[in-house]
Amino acid sequence: MPHAVLVDDFIPSKEEAQNFEDEWRKAGEIDYQNYQKIQAVFSTGDFSIPSLEAKCQALDRAYHCGGRQSCQDIAGHLYRVFSIEENKNRLKRGDMTLVDEIRATPNGNLYVLAAMFCHHSNPDKYYAYSGKVKALLSRLNLTGHFLVHGLHMRNYSQFDENMRSFVHRYNLEDQDKTKLDVMISRAYNLYRPQLI
Questions:
Q1: pLDDT at residue 155 above 80?
Q2: Which member of 56, 57, 69, 131 has the greatest number of CB atoms within 10 A?
Q3: Short-list 67, 45, 103, 80, CA closest to 55
C-alpha cells in the first residue's frame, strides 16, 4: 500500500504500522541497526555504571539525546536513581512519573533520554518519545485527524495519555509500542518537509 503524499492525508492504521515496520526491517537502515544494538545493550537488565554508560551511548548514537552532558555524567545520574531498589520496581511496573524524575539532572533536562531509557528498559509499558513523535502528533492534532484538548508532550504522564488517545483514536491497541514508534518516526521522515 503506497503512503499518502501529504501529511494531512496520513491516517495511522494497522496496515501503515506494518508497512513502515516492514520497510524499516528490509532496508537495514542505520536506525534499525542502532535499534538492534540498543536492544542488545538493554537486554542485560544491569544497572552498573559501565552498563548504564553503554546504554547512554547507544541511546545517544540513535537519538542524539544526551545533550551537552557526557555519558559518564549521565550514567552516574542514572546509577544514583537506580541505586534505590524501589525505582527499579517502578521501572518494571511502568510508573510514568519515573521518566520525569530521571530527566532532571544536576546539569540540565534529559527528557528524550529519560523517555527512551524507560522505553527500551520496558517497551511494553513505556511509549517512545522524541521530537519526531511530538512533531507528527502535533501536526495530526492541528489538521483535525487527532483531536486532543491541550496536546501536552513535555510531561511524560500527559504524553502517555496523549499516546493512549492516539492509539484508541486509530484502533491501534493491538500494536506494540515499538511498532508505533517505528510508524511515527518513519512517517515523520517521509513528511518532514511538510512538518517544518
A1: yes
A2: 56
A3: 45
Mean pLDDT of 161-168: 87
Minimal CA–CA distance to 110: which of 101, 119, 121? 101
Residue 90, CA distances (Å) to 22, 126, 196 in order: 33, 12, 37
- Distance of alpha carbon 191 from alpha carbon 5, whole angstroms: 8
Band (1; pLDDT cuts 50, 70, 90): very low
C-alpha cell at 112: 528524550
C-alpha–C-alpha distance, residues 82 and 58, integer Å: 18
